[in-house]
Design goal:
Distance between the termini: 62 Å
Oligomer: single chain
Order of helices and strands: HEHEEHHEEHEEEEEEEEHEE
Radius of gyration: 21 Å
Shape: globular
Strand content: 25-35%
Length: 323
Amino acid sequence: MRMDKSKTAIIAVIALVIVCAGSFFAVRSINNRVNPKAAVTVTSMEPVASTDPTVPTDDTTVPTFETAEPLDTVPLSQLPTDDEEEGRFTTFPISTGESTTSFTLPTEGSTTTLPDIEPSTTQGAEEQAQQTIQRAAVFSDGFLGYQFNKEGNYYFTTTDPWQRNFGFNVLYDMGAPFVNFYYDTIRCKFRYEDKDWLIQFWKGQYGLVFLGAEIGVYTKPIDREQAHYDGASDDDMLYMSMSFYRKGVERATRDYAKYWWCTAFVPGTLDSFRDRSELSMKARITLKSKEMRDLFAASLESNGFKLDKDYSVSGKDVYFSWQ
């Protein structure tokens, strides 16, 4: 018995959707990756001098805030453990080019030679995108946890956005390509003060119109086997600053302050979604103690960063650069 044309068409459409979905997953699932460092920056990372009495120096105690209990909103039984998580991504080497430039870290004046970066050539397109997005009040009034910094010309997340309630786990990174997020990420994990800590960095393409960089601070109880971390409570927020570059041009800088999620997003599109090496980040993070500083530094080392080459320490501060 022959099918009528309408049934044949429906079956053909369903088959096409299945094939497209399979191809979509196969191609995009390799786009986001845990990225070993290929550190580069184009300006010196000098310690920030602040006249704000609430900002700690290397020898002062970091003030704390009233603790906010994190919320468990993800079914932990469905998440991988810490050991299982690390096997879910493929590490790709990054080519750094042949031309070089000088760069100085803020420790003993040590200098290293790093790849040069060409200036951006897409400023006109990004300015046009900026004008379009600025007209969207939904982003500039804090809706969905985002605000616009008129002086710095970038978007950022507020201190207590809705995303804080959901913490972070590897499944979020795995699902990012399906909403057109293409980024590199580094996870620094260590145990301190009876908690498992995760300090994670991201940089890449966010949707079709934004480039951005993030630093997130997360914790979880040591008896939680699954690798789901809660957004850091107010007590566990850390002082930090972050600068974000595209092709050597500074696009946004977050001032030295206390964060659990330090972010900056600017209009723009990568030359290739698969290649995020045109983006770079430099940052300063002040840890709670020198012991915690050393644990964080050891985790940087495990991700390929080298002391006095890719990062430096001063008091409770860690300075690093990443491309």
